[in-house]
Every structure is written in C-alpha cells, then in structure tokens.
C-alpha cells in the first residue's frame, strides 16, 4: 500500500525560512482592536453647596521662608555655632507662606511675646 506524502518545500535560503516563520506567527496573532465609547471631557466644577466643615480639623503644615542661599559642601561643613549665613532676601522683603508645599501668600516677620510671627500681607488667588 502506497502512502501519499505532502512535503513542505524546504529552502536553503535563511531569509526565506525567517519570512515563512514570521508569516506563520502573524497568522496566529489576533489583530482585533477593542472599541471604546467616546467620552467628552468632564472637568470638575466648584459647587457653592459644598460643606467643607468636616475638613476643619485636618492639620496642614504652614511654613514661612525667610530666604535661601547656595553653599559649597566645603562651606557647609565649615559651619559652626555662631556662623552667619547670608540669605538672598532683604530684611524688608515679604516672606513667602507655604502650606503643604504650595505657596499661599506672603507676609512680614513680627515679634510677639519674644516669638517670631508672620503678619499676613497677601493671600494669593487660587
């Protein structure tokens, strides 16, 4: 009894073999792209009816920045008690008020009962 054989042509050319393998892989890939519903942007709107009283007890960090400067590592290592570091702000310039890292206003340094305080001069618009 004779068997019928089907032979796949074999090529000695490596590029032809790679192309055949790539075509076989492409046949197995599902090329369907899922469809999504198109939505319109919906930006949040401020509502005057919101009650923020429940957040009244949440604590935030408020910092007053007097000024900044840049030092080399050598200058930093050389600092000791009594050293003076000059800042980039004039004494009459307002200090920046920063709440949780967000600038919120500025003011001037005052002294109340031997403690520094800030008199707010400006609250920035949101």
What does this protein structure show overall?
The protein has 126 residues and is an alpha+beta fold. The chain has 2 helices and 4 strands. It has a 4-stranded antiparallel β-sheet, with no helix packed on it. A hairpin with a 2-residue loop joins strand 3 (102-112) and strand 4.
Fold-level CATH name of the domain at 58-78 and 88-123: Surface presentation of antigens (SPOA)
Helix content: 10-25%
Structural class: alpha+beta
Main sheet properties: 4 strands, antiparallel
Number of helices: 2
Rg, nearest Å: 36 Å
CATH architecture name of the domain at 58-78 and 88-123: Roll
Mean pLDDT: 81
CATH homologous superfamily grouping of the domain at 58-78 and 88-123: SpoA-like
Secondary-structure element series: HEHEEE
What is the number of beta strands? 4
How are strands sequenced across the largest beta sheet? 1-2-3-4
Uncertain ranges = none
Q: Which assembly state applies to the chains in this document?
A: single chain
Query: CATH top level of the domain at 58-78 and 88-123?
Result: Mainly Beta
How far apart the termini lie comes to 92 Å
Strand content: 15-25%
Shape: flat
Characteristic key phrases:
126 residues; alpha+beta; Surface presentation of antigens (SPOA); four-stranded antiparallel beta sheet; 2 helices; 4 strands; 23% strand; flat; FliN_T3SS_HrcQb; chemotaxis; SpoA-like_sf; flagellar rotation; cytoskeletal motor activity
